[in-house]
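Our collaborator T.R. sent over the components below with a one-line note: 'Predict the complex.' Nothing else. No constraints on interfaces, no templates requested, no preferences about which chain binds where. So this is a plain run: every listed entity goes in together, and whatever single assembly comes back becomes the starting point for the next discussion.
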Amino acid sequence: MKGSNLGEFEELVLLTIAALVNDAYSVAVCDELEKHTGRAAKLGVVHAVLNRLEEKGLVKSRMGEATSTRGGKRKRYYEVTHAGKVALTNAKDVRESLWRIIPGFNLEGSI
Amino acid sequence: MNRFDNQNNRSGDKSQVAQPPRWAQHLIRWYCRPDLLEDLQGDLNEYFERNLKTKGPGRARWIYCLDALKFFRLYTIRKPDFLNLFIHWIMIGSYLKTSRRSLVRNKLFSFINIFGLAVSMSVGLLVISLISDFLSYDDFQLKKDRTYRVITSYQNLDEPAVELASTSVKVGQEIRKTVAGIDELTILRNGFSGDAHVGETVVPFEAYWADNSFFKVFSFPLLKGDPATALKEPYSLVLTEKTAKKLFGDVDPLGKFVRFDSLNYTVTGIAKDVPKLSHLRFDALVSFATADALLAKKDPNFHGWENVWQNYVYLVLPSTSDPASLQPTLDKLNAKENAALKNRKFTVALQPLNEVVLSKRLDNSIGPTMRPIAIWILGGLAFIIILSACFNYTNLSIARSLRRSREVGIRKIIGAMKSHVLGQFMAESVIIALMALVFSFGLFLFLRTQFLALDPHIGDLVTLDLSPRIILYFLVFAMVVGLAAGFLPALFFSRINALQVIKDASTVKVFQRISMRKALIVIQYTLSLIFIATTLIGYNQYRGLVLFDLGFTTENILNIRLQGNKGDVLAKELSEIPAVREISQSMMITSLGSIHGTNMKYTDPRDSAMVWLNQVDEHYLPVHNHKLVAGKNFTLRPKKGEESEAIVNEQVLKRFNIAKRDPEKALGNVVTVDGKKLTIVGVLKDFHYGTMDKKIEPVMFRYSADEPWGYLNVKIASTDLPATMASIDKAWRKLDKVHPLEAKFYDDQIEEAYSQFSVMVKVIGFIAFLAICIASLGLFGMVVFTTETRLKEISIRKVLGATEGGLVFLLSRGFLGLLLVASLVALPATYFFFDKVVLTNFAYHQPIGLSELVIGIGLVMLLAFLMIGSQTLKAARNNPAKVLKSE
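Returned assembly:
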């Protein structure tokens, strides 16, 4: 089941990680998602997706430095792998090619 | 007020730094995968801190809990280990239940397993308590870890060195004087024994001369007296509580006198009785100053470097000091002292206290000693039969796997992992081993009394008492046995393919394991056969030793130890007893292992050789039927200080080439012994002076009245032995009221001299018996199992017209083949082991009869045939209709 296909939420999380660059860890990803999509990203769900993305090899993670906040616990930072980048580009291409073939009138006026 | 304040403070603290709920934290720690834990806790904490600011502590805590629970849902999928563990714990009840059912359902197999393990483990328990006893020798010595004994190696010319536990007084004094960094040092001397008199009371005792530092080195507490000065003055005596009681009764003995050899000793201390597990055992201690005053005066060499035969030096090193660092100093001392000697060398070294009892062979050892090799042998034997019982367990468990594999298959399908199945079966075998321990403990209690009674020395050496520590060892031992026995079956079951089993139980590859089972049976039987052959060979050799024609007669000769009494007087009393035929006197009893030697010279003054000797009177040769090749018995009765005649054996003529070994011409030749010139008046036929493991060597009989006789040799021809013994005892009583009569028949003494050997034969025989029982039980189990599983095949064959004999042959063929292989391995192995290794140590051993080996093998085979035959016949006689109908 675990192919290279990206689910919608997975794609969003992956994009967020790419956007956050060096500061991509679970809570930051949640916050960023909430900011851009407006919908409440639950920590548990985000965690599950991060884990799944890592299993698929689209992101890789490393533990950060110890911090005084978070009860002294370290953060796990995520980074998009090459495979992740390819998957994102593919997804974007698919959308763009679909957008390209939509006849202009088809969406006009309906929004 | 205060309390109120405190409460305020505490609640103030709480509002300042609110913490997430504890139970939620624990919950996460419990279920979370370790590699994710930190990340997750961090996230929860970060949210908690954020919520604390925006939503207040109450809500923050509430959200924390919710999130913790939500994570639980996700991570359950990711990391199911804890769930398995959980299930595992729940399942233990079920494991126990199925194990118990399997035990009860297969009564025969359970019996074989538990009984076999119990029997073999009881020997293991015996060995454990033996080893424990040996290792706890001298444990009560507080400075045990840093106490050392000085031991001596004595070398004369190129002869092999003699290793001695004793050393010279000088070594002790020199070390004390010149070697720095030694905490304490004490010098002991043995040989102070005899009768102590207090008024009319006479008590025989064994004591040591010990110097004043004795109580600083050793922890023998004094009940009365001052340990610092008790052994300082000459003629001071420290008694043990028991001896003091015997001598003085309830009177306070301190300061009283004890007479010993017409000298008075002052009692300066009462020591607590010596614990049983102490290598030093004594009834009393005499100050070493006494030895200086008494012995050193007579013997100018008393303090000499070469006087190494009776003294023991112990020292205590500081806890920081390494005994090896002392050796160079000792070597320097050796070199300095040996420089003054010609041809001889004495080298001293240190031996730790814990190696004194369990040590290499040392002569002049003090107290009981045990060679570690004996323990290793006994342990090895125990190990072998425990292994045999474990083989049974392994074999039978795997054989039954057809039945239990379905159970395992179902367990695996509902989620049991390999490790769980492994754990279950290991736990089952441990439980069985613990059950076996209960029985084996009972057996051990019985074995212990038997073992201690086997030989008087054993009871002297060990107590085999139980202690909490020993019980703990027993439990650990049982668990180890259980794990060892259960390992292979558990491994086998854990590898079972669940799906295959459920689909079709008959596909379980039990029969792939057959080669291993065969191998185990062969090993078991090989060991059993070796054991029984060993026992029979050993017994035969022992009989051979005891009944060996020594070259003289020992029949009906009663040896009476004179214990310092006058031989002539007793002989006169005894000669009035009608059953007494002849009486002779001798210094020692030959052929029992103790030897006395002296140097003899012939014409060449530079050529001297060690000759063993016995000092005998003119009746000795006729009483013992010694055969003279030439010459005659002693003719002169020497007065005190005179000695002129010697009777030698043929080996003496050979050694010195006297008269070109012609006995007749050797008569009249003169040899020099102890500075005395003795004329050879007789030549004896060679006889066994030493024990049978020694070659016949030069021996001489001499006749002098200088030294007291040791024994009376009384030849008895009695029809009523008890009455004769009673009258001998009466005659003895007239002479000596203190010491009980010590009289033993020569034949019995010879048996005693080889008692170690008989103990060994008995022990090995017993273990052989157990080994055969266990192997037979195992074989029986296997036969029953095989015939049961092949019942259908047998029935069909029978229906098709197979004869009973043919069926029995079919069923037993495989087993008989295994037994054949086992005997083919065991026979030559035993033969070569004895022929090339063991019996080469005995100069005059019996040849190994093929009959012993064949009888042994025959016995075991007969037993095996009976078992196999009875079971296969039972199967062959089954009514095939019944079997086939039920299928």
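Summary for T.R.: Confidence is low (pLDDT under 50) at residues 1-15 of chain B.
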